[in-house]
Write a structure and sequence with these properties.
alpha+beta, Lipocalin, eleven-stranded antiparallel sheet, signal
Length: 196
């Protein structure tokens, strides 16, 4: 028995299949960047969950992040540690992937000696997680400033519906700060980078 298939039905199947393929083939870096952009103009509280150095810089201090600036290819996220507004994470998207930089400022807006360090993705990662091994500029900066152990730094950003995580790891060193995305907080004061 010979089966006949309605040409219109066959066309619909082909279109559906090609649409599914396109959705499944989405670039994880683009997906990650777009998820981050959905948080724009929102602020969240966080806490240190891991700090192998037991640094007093973060101990018992409230943490906040503010997804403050969202452009087509750049997102700026000031990171507050207590009243310290010196840190801003900058995530930039290009045809080559994603870059994470750390913009560190003094109260008057001038650049800290250790600033603009970070890294670039070396693989596509996942829609929820991206990794940024230290780039050559950062490695040179770390050596020049007497902290050569940091040349092996890899930073990771995680985004899930309920939490955002900033993580630093290298041999013998790990730091993680986790932010609760289930509830927003009041917008913090402008970061020190606004005074530049």
């Amino acid at each position: 028995m010979k089966l006949s298939i309605n040409p219109l039905f066959a066309s619909a199947l082909i279109i559906a299949a090609s649409t599914t393929t396109t959705v499944n083939a989405a670039n994880p870096q683009d997906a990650f960047f777009e998820k981050l952009k959905t948080l724009c103009n929102k602020s969240f509280a966080g806490e240190v969950t891991v700090d192998s150095s037991k640094s007093s810089s973060f101990a018992n201090k409230p943490l906040k992040m503010h997804v403050r600036t969202c452009e087509e290819n750049k997102i700026e996220i000031p990171f507050y540690v207590g009243s310290n507004a010196s840190r801003t994470w900058i995530i930039t998207k290009s045809a080559k992937g994603l870059t994470l930089k750390h913009d560190h400022r003094h109260r008057d807006g001038s650049e800290d000696t250790l600033t603009q360090y970070g890294g670039h993705t070396i693989d596509e990662g996942w829609a929820q997680v991206q990794s940024f091994p230290a780039d050559d500029f950062s490695k040179s900066l770390f050596v020049e400033n007497g902290i050569p152990d940091s040349i092996d730094n890899t930073w990771q950003l995680y985004i899930y519906p309920d939490k955002f995580t900033y993580r630093l790891k290298r041999e013998g060193r790990e730091f993680s700060a986790v932010f609760d995305l289930t509830k927003t907080i009041d917008t913090p004061p402008a970061p020190w980078s606004d005074r530049k």
